[in-house]
Amino acid sequence: MPKSDDNSTLRRLQNRYRLVVMNEDTYEEVVKFRLSRLSVYIVLSSVFVLLTFLTVALIIFTPIKYYLPGVGYGDARQVKEFKSLKMRTDSMETALKFRQQYLDDLQKVLQGKLPALDTTKLTLPDVEKYEE
């Protein structure tokens, strides 16, 4: 029966390594560290958790949360005002687009740049149908 990999994985995580920082000119050892893969993993995980905790605390306990629209903070009055302003802006954009189209068409009429209308292709409703 083959040996389980649990023992070799645990042993590999616990193997000790030496990290040495040396002065390039004198080859003097400045700093020595005895590390294992497990200790490096624990330190990096702790730093990640600490940074995540600090970021969340910064958002929750400071006024920054009011400037982040995706977080959902802010009082109801501000949210209502924001929605109202958004609706007004959208309607103003639509009105501006229609006004610009009207002015462009009016300018074409005044300059005489409109193509001649072919009235022979117009289909008129049958008048007899409505007289009955």
Note the topology.
Elements: H1 5-14, E1 16-22, E2 29-36, H2 37-61, H3 76-111, H4 127-131
Antiparallel strand pairs: 1-2
Describe the structure.
The chain is mainly alpha-helical. 58% of the residues lie in helices and 11% in strands. It is built from 4 helices and 2 strands, in the order αββααα. Strands 1-2 form a two-stranded antiparallel sheet. The longest helix has 36 residues, at 76-111. The model has no long low-confidence stretch (mean pLDDT 84).
Give the gist of this structure.
Helix content is 58%, strand content 11%. By secondary structure, it is mostly helical. A two-stranded antiparallel sheet has the order 1-2.
Helix content: 55-70%
Shape: elongated
Topology, number of strands:
2
Residues in β-strands, percent: 5-15%
The averaged pLDDT comes out at 84
**What structural class do the secondary elements suggest?**
mainly alpha
Question: What is the radius of gyration?
Answer: 38 Å
Figure out the total of helices.
4
Unreliable runs: none
- The sequence of SSEs as H and E is HEEHHH
